[in-house]
Amino acid sequence: MNEDDATNYVLQQGWVVDPASRMLTVKKQTIVTEQKLDATKLQRLTEFVFHLEH
């Protein structure tokens, strides 16, 4: 990977390249998670917690 390819990759990741110092700043990417709890999962979790407590 040459310097131009590396720079393009870095920019695609949303990172910032300072051309003067040739340093890059990495930004933490946000992780999008979607929680879906249906009634059966909630019931199973409740039963499991009840089992652990007694």
From TrEMBL:
Source domain of life: Eukaryota
One GO process term, biological-process aspect: protein deneddylation
Keyword Ligase applies: no
InterPro entries: COP9_CSN8
Keywords: Cytoplasm
Gene Ontology CC: COP9 signalosome
Protein name: CSN8/PSMD8/EIF3K domain-containing protein
Presence of keyword Methyltransferase: no
Organism: Lithocarpus litseifolius
